[in-house]
Amino acid sequence: MEINLFYLTVLFSIIGYVYYRVTKNNGYFHDKPIPSLAVKPFFGSSASLLLKKTTFFDYMSYVYNKFPNVKVLGVFDTTTPMFLIRDPQLIKRIGVKDFDHFVDHRPTFGNSDESDSPHALFAKSLFALNGQRWRDMRATLSPAFTGSKMRQMFQLMDECIQTMMRHMETNIKQKGSMEVEVKDILSRLAMDVIASCAFGLKVNCFEDRENEFLKHAKKMLLFGRLTVLLKIMTFRWFPEFASRFGFDVIDKEQAVYFSSIIKDTVQTRESKGIVRHDMIDLLLQAKKGTLKHQQETEVHEGFATVQESDVGKVQGLTTMTEPEMIAQCLIFLIGGFDTVSTAGTFLIYELMRNPDIQEKLYQEIMETEKSLDGKPLTYDALQSMKYMDMVVSEALRMWPPAPALDRLCVRDYVVDDGEGLRFTIDKGTCAWIPVYGLHFDPQYFPNPERFDPERFSEANRANINLDVYLPFGIGPRNCIGSRFALMEVKAFAYHMLRKFSFQRSEKTQIPLQMKKGFVAVAAEGGVFVQLQARS
After folding, report:
1. Is the dihedral of CA 501, 505, 507, 510 positive or negative?
2. SS3 of 13, please?
3. Residue 79 carries which DSSP code?
4. Distance CA 398, CA 393 (A)
5. In this predicted structure, what is the pLDDT of residue 23?
6. Quick one: how far is CA 405 from the chain centroid?
7. The pairing of beta strand 80-85 with beta strand 430-433
8. Up-side HSE of residue 84: CA atoms within 13 Å toward CB?
9. What is this structure's pTM?
10. How far apart, in whole angstroms, are the C-alpha atoms of residue 106 and residue 87?
């Protein structure tokens, strides 16, 4: 009896301690002169999202519009106090002007950059690094993502798209049309492109649909798996425990597989003097400290392209370790795969829904094709397509790959709007920038539910507030690969529209039913369209 009582006492003590740990900050916003959302134990203000009762887009829209006249409101994402920033001027101050107070991402996936484990690769990636280590790595990698480097890499990407087009044309040739799931096509293309440009491999995920590279990539990218979700929740509830035991979002099996590929490729390149102008070549230069910023020739790179800040233009690391190099390839796979496939999927969806816009873009493609006079598509020809850029920019407004941005406050930050609102964002809390809410706010984008590329015409783009159009983030910590992503999406759209028209099929959802929960932005059941071969 006494033993049972002892164990019960221990059990309840543990439960009490855990409950205290996850609820101790629940009253945080009570002392702040801003409104806040209700809090539930363990889930904070995001229970509906974490329990898969709502979509990420709907959740961000709800919290953004809950208090429409305030500049800042308080939200709890599990146990972390989040200051949801609705005011464009404050967004700019936090993201750009006062960036030193918000230099890091929130440690969502266990980004303990002190980890020495050779398999803890995510922690060494640009996304996860903190403070000065992040600054050094950003400056080191920044020259690899300039327009001139994209121009060199364009041929490798275009070869992957041409392989996809041959596969599509062969399958459609007999029937003249075919129903396809767009996300599946773009996911396979994105995998081919990343394998070629970041790992130096040709895998052809259209013909060899279950190749080894694709299998391991799928395992690594399945963020909805229970084991990964448990890791994420552990990182959020008990970050010290997760860091101490070297948790990493990338499983050891995938870390070993991709590390061996990169090591073998590097050894072959260095021993045989092979130059391919891909990411491996650029990272080898960075590893040796020879990758430098060069004077760029002026070229229209697209409205959504983010510009590199001064942080990325200083001297970076003099050398890069092998695990750091491998980590950058993996984060390129993780970030580039989903961003490109998601952006391309919803672009095709909107073109299918708006045949007049699709036809206008097709006419520009034909004009570009004529100007090439039988020569292959080039990076500069693609960048010169103004209507293409308008269409892609609007697709990114309506379907931003990241519905929200986070910034960790690393030093106490006083907010004073000069109109009576004054409070402190405390160190260790986060600023949350609701991208989806901003993109659908009618005061910034009139009639936001309408797909209207004319918003981004040369005559109208001056009316757009750049502090609220954030498809690739804001400030020094914006997406380093925006040029690469835009290049791939535009090249895909160019080649596909040149050969096919996008039409509604029997399985097409209008409107789309989006997946619920804290998952990547995706449609439930996929995005289906009918590809009709052009005569």
Report:
1. positive
2. helix
3. T
4. 9
5. 65
6. 10
7. parallel
8. 30
9. 0.91
10. 21
